[in-house]
Write a structure and sequence with these properties.
142 residues, alpha/beta, Rossmann fold, 6-stranded parallel β-sheet, 5 helices
Length: 142
């Protein structure tokens, strides 16, 4: 199983990376940023592909290159500099990720995060159930 995590260098993404690494997965992080300061403790346990969610061609290429079977979409701007940038990144970027996820026949699961509330939800369930939700064959959204 190969997991692609968009936004893996951000606050929520770094938390997900650590959770996946604890479960012995080696996630593929797809992020525009190359700042790994939130992932110091997980270095060497993931692969970083620097890319923009607005770049559908690179997303598709990454999915094919790594034979991705699961996608967790966590890339977003929580405080965009202006509304238009927020729409471009958060809406159009998400649409690109959704489109890329439709293409590979090998994709078994797609999950996305829509806010930091996900931490409260995941804190209330066991680590085993958390992993099952992240790695099941179902669609997941919060």
């Amino acid at each position: 199983m190969t997991i692609l995590l968009t936004g893996g260098t951000g606050f929520m993404g770094a938390w997900i990376v650590r959770t996946l690494v604890e479960k012995t997965y080696k996630p593929i992080i797809y992020d525009l940023r190359s700042d790994l300061s939130l992932l110091e403790d997980a270095k060497g346990k993931f692969e970083l592909v620097q890319g923009d969610t607005l770049d559908l061609a690179t997303l598709i290429q990454t999915i094919k290159r790594f034979k991705i079977t699961r996608i967790i979409h966590a890339a977003a701007l929580t405080s965009p500099p202006n509304p238009l940038t927020g729409v471009k990144i958060n809406v159009e970027g998400s649409i690109s990720v959704f489109e890329a996820a439709r293409l590979p026949e090998s994709l078994l699961c797609f999950g996305y995060l829509s806010g930091q509330e996900v931490f409260r939800i995941f804190a209330e369930i066991s680590p085993k159930e958390r992993c099952q939700r992240l790695c099941s064959r179902n669609y997941i959204g919060s």
